[in-house]
Automatic annotation (TrEMBL):
It comes from the Eukaryota. InterPro entries: GNT1/Glycosyltrans_8, Nucleotide-diphossugar_trans. It comes from Penicillium cataractarum. This is Glycosyltransferase family 8 protein. Signal peptide: none annotated. The lineage of its organism: Eukaryota, Fungi, Dikarya, Ascomycota, Pezizomycotina.
Amino acid sequence: MIQTGRPEDFLSKKLFAFCLFSIGFTIFLLFGSPAPPSPDELNSTSVSDQHRPAIYKGRQAISTFLATKSNAKAGQDDNEDSYFVSARTLVYQLLHSPTTKLQHPIPVVVLVAKDVGESKRQTLRSDGAIVVEVEDVTHSTPIAAERWTSMATKLHVFDPTVVPYEKVLFMDVDMVLTRPIDKIFQELSTELGPITNATQVDAELGPLPEQYILAASPESHQKDHAYPFLDSDHTVSTFNSGLFMYSPSIEMYQYYMRLLDHPDLYYTGIPDQDLLNYAHRWGGPMSWKRLNWSWYINFPNENDLQGGMALLHARWWEQGASVSSESVEQFAFARRWEMEGYWMGQKAKTSS
Ligand SMILES: *[C@@H]1O[C@H](CO)[C@@H](O)[C@H](O)[C@H]1NC(C)=O
Ligand SMILES: *[C@@H]1O[C@H](CO)[C@@H](O)[C@H](O)[C@H]1NC(C)=O
């Protein structure tokens, strides 16, 4: 007969097993899941694609870029900077909002240009973002437009020493979420793929990375459209550069830096969008792939809002501007005040 033991024995065995499990689970939490990189890792010096530390592998993040508008007056209240308020709203929606926050949180990295004030950086940090200052990029482009310098500086998001993750979703600050966006990282179009079809010109401007990711959504071109905006015959060959999935790479970053000096190849008046669309043109060596139509649109309208479009991209604070519809503006404004209310509530909690 098998000795079954007394009930007390059984209980203590169960307790023992539970303790073992708890210890094991704690170890898993400590070492099993990737921790966000330390500031030292973030500040590490040059990293090449081939020698990309294993630490970046499989890591995901969201990146965005904040510059200060040239007309920002000294002594201005931080909240009068619409781009800053929009960045805060985005961080809140990604990390804290009960209806839109990431189900599996990943780092949200905000790159800031040198002239973004310390108080804004502090606020973004206490909101939960990783804030990294980037140097202004100097370039020898004959185009003197200030937007050009800002665009060149924004390209730091591709620099793996600044954004040390393997798969990153870049988002312009001026967009709002209607639902969580975790699953965008699982889209087939966001998998690393090989380089193809490099031409002589590409080779001269190279070297290119061995693999790349560039998944985005077609430029919608107009405010009046149905939901979904399908472009089913794939006639729209340019993507909107407000949102794209990519893989930071030193080769890619340096390739873009070289492209900066050749606007003759691509410039039509929209600096970063033109450059990225040239680098990732269809038939080229690193052609862009389409994200599912339900993730993102520029020039969003009421149809997108009603239909369940996840990301609505518009300078929503410019009321009455032709960039979006009234219902999208109202929706975005409500998210902004939801963000303010959330932080007020947190403050009240900690001070009581
Ligand atoms: C490579 O170039 C060929 C010929 O121009 C074209 O048919 C093909 O689609 C290109 N491949 C990619 C992946 O763009
Ligand atoms: C795109 O997303 C929609 C909505 O989530 C879904 O119904 C559809 O199946 C997706 N399409 C593809 C090709 O995955």
